[in-house]
Design a protein that fits this description.
UDP-galactose 4-epimerase, domain 1; Rossmann fold; seven-stranded parallel sheet; about 35% helix; three-stranded mixed sheet; alpha/beta
Length: about 290
Amino acid sequence: MKILVIGSGFLGAPIIQSLEADGHELLVFARQPKPNLRAKQISGNILDFSDFENTLEWNPDVIIHTAWITTPGLYANDPLNIEYRLFSIKLAQRIASSNLAHLIVLGSCSEYGTQNLPALAGSTLLAPENEYARQKVETFGDIQRILADTGIRFTWARVYFPYGIGQHPDRLIPYLTRSLLSGDPIQLRNPTSVSDWITYRDIASAISWLINNVLPVEVDIGTGRGISNLDLLSKLAKILEVGVIPMDSPADYLQQFDFKVVDKDSPIFKSGWRPQDDLESGLQWVINI
């Protein structure tokens, strides 16, 4: 199968490697080439559609759109969110009259906003609380409308809390690991919030599953198992064999409870897919590199 992957970042790269292992013919469009990818790569500005448009002449069967701004401390309300939405709309408009079979776009669990129960794709109300999430929700709606009367299958895959080797050092798991090893005081702003952590290799597995199995338009990609931030910290400390956890007082921070976990009846679980990593094995893999 000919698959065009847009973006080769933290999630894009493992998805590409997984599809390569499956024997697909791949073309990658990203800002910079990655030396560890065997697939043919085209470099260009993802936000300049004229830079990208000729790539579609390759006539892929499937397009996987992974590109978006995710820089910690910036992404939530960065104006670039609007630019990524505009690119995504132009992409949908351009392929609407093509022979493309399937478009997969990565969404985010942040589209659900603050929750206190597991989320069920296609049923749980979307309630975005920042610009990143709002633009994701708007993009989902725009693409769905553009492709509604075409024969193109569309999948919006909301990714939960990804982690893996090489993650940005300011993300929670790398930050906690680094602080535990150095003995620096840890700032845990929402210790009771519960998150569904999933390795990027399981996310890559889920994307392969979506290509080979027909599911509803909206799909949540997680494990169906959640853990509080405080329990995550304790689990990391146990793996790292750190006896005393240095913590700043949680009273110093504005705390908010949030529960972001994929429902056990999520479409991807009902279709038969399961993650291979539990949190223990995933953390061991990341830490013992």
